[in-house]
């Protein structure tokens, strides 16, 4: 945990190994409020990193500066005193991918992957998976907002998302899309609270 100008945050340490044709990532970190896949040219090296924040996010530049200065502390993700709601576990290079687990190590959900990366946040939510079903989690807290009950689901746009049952995914090897099924629109529950 770090604190700067009244904002408490947590940076997840990432170790990237670059080979001739592959890149491996080892990580030990946690997610409290928001996880985001970002690319950075920190000290001239391109790497993919996960970043987690608690409370408000500081500007990315400030967070990278703190990392470059070696001021990020070791994260005590699974200790009883940990302030974090959930922890990241896994790797983007395994079949199960990155998963969110509770303090007891029980899987809460898997992140939904889109275009070779984690699903980006849209209107305060990102898509998640439990088994083969898709739902949505709050991008700020990581908590499930819409239970994973859908076979297909698009990101929220203008307060609504298209979701489907009995639809199937097709691919041309590079792109994926859904066909068939029974579709409906759902309303972003975060907008209804305002």
UniProtKB/TrEMBL annotation:
InterPro entries: WG_beta_rep (IPR032774). It comes from Providencia alcalifaciens 205/92. The chain crosses the membrane at residues 37-58. Keywords: Membrane, Transmembrane, Transmembrane helix. This is WG repeat-containing protein.
